[in-house]
C-alpha cells in the first residue's frame, strides 16, 4: 500500500520532537490505536450488515451497542482499545479476539526470554523495564505452558523408518521431586538421530529419576512405536546393560561405545603430569587399522602403564565388545561414530540454557526449557559434515537396510 506525500505531511504536521512521534503519547501509538479501532468497526459493520449511523433491515433486532475499553499489552506498552459491541453479543472480532490481552508478538517475546534461561521474575522485570508492562507471574506461566502442547506434538510425531546413526546420552538436571519436595538430580535422556540425508534430528527427550538400561529400553520401544524400524549404528556411553536394552528393541543394531567417553574415563585414573602421554598412547589403540592391531596396542599400553595405572586397560577390555565394531568401518564412518560429540554439542546448548536456573520446580518446567534449547540447536544447522562419503559407505555396507 502506498501512502501519499500529502497524507504524510498532514500526519506529521504537529511532530516537532522524537517523542511526538515515538513517545507513549506519540503519533505512532495513536495511529495504531485508531487504525485498529477503524478495522474493528469495519468488522462489526460486516457482521451487522449496515453502516454506522445507518438503518438496519426492519426485521433485524441486533444493533450496535457502544464499545468496551480494553487494554492490550504490546511493544508500545499498554494500548487502550475501544472494542465495539452489538446488543446480542454475537460479534466476535478477528483482529482482537475475545480473551486476547496481548498484541505485537508479546507471547513470542516471553517465550524467547524464557528460552534464554530467564526466570519468571526476570522476565517480568525485563518487560517492565523495556516496555513499561507489568505482567503477572501467572501470565508468564500460561504463555510458557503453551509450549507443552508443542512438546507433546513433537514428542509423539512420526519418525523415519531408518536412521543410519543414533546417538544416545543422558545429562543431569536439578528438579524438585513432586513427592518428597526435595531437589534431586534427575536424568534427562536425549536421542539424536542422523537421517539418510545426513540431517541431525533430535528424536525426543525424556526425564526420569535415574539413568539406567531399563529406562533406555522403554525409550527404544517408544522410538519403535513411532515408526522407527531399524537403526544401523547406536553410539552410546559405557552404561552397563545399555547394549542389551538397544538390541532388545532393535536386534540388528550395531552398538558402539563412545571412544571419547572411554578416554575421559581412563584419564580420571591419571595424574596431571601423565595425562598427555597416556592420551597419546591410547590414541594408538583406537586409531588402529583393525581390531587385532588395536588389541596389540592395548597390550603394549598395559605393558607401559599397567603398573602405575592398573585400572585403565581392564576398563577398555570390559567394554571391548562395544569397541571393536568401530574397526569394521571405513574412515568416513569412523570419523562420525567414534565419539558422541554430535550429542555433546547438543548437551552444551542444553547446559548453557539450564545453568542460569539453580533448579526447576517440576518436570514440566524443565521440559519446556530443554525443548526450547533443542529447537534452537536444530535451527543452527542440521547437516553432518562430510556425510556424502559416509552415506556411500552405508549404502555398500547395508544395501538392503539403508535403502529401505
Automatic annotation (TrEMBL):
User: Which is an annotated Pfam family here?
Assistant: Transposase_mut
Record-linked InterPro entries? Transposase_mutator (IPR001207)
Chain residue ranges for the region called Disordered = 49-71
Q: Which keywords does the record carry?
A: DNA recombination, DNA-binding, Transposable element, Transposition
Keyword presence, Chloroplast: no
Q: Which GO terms describe its molecular function?
A: DNA binding; transposase activity
Query: What is the protein's given name?
Result: Mutator family transposase
Record function comment: Required for the transposition of the insertion element.
Tell me, what is an example of a GO biological process annotation in this record?
A: DNA transposition
Q: Which family does the record claim for this protein?
A: Belongs to the transposase mutator family.
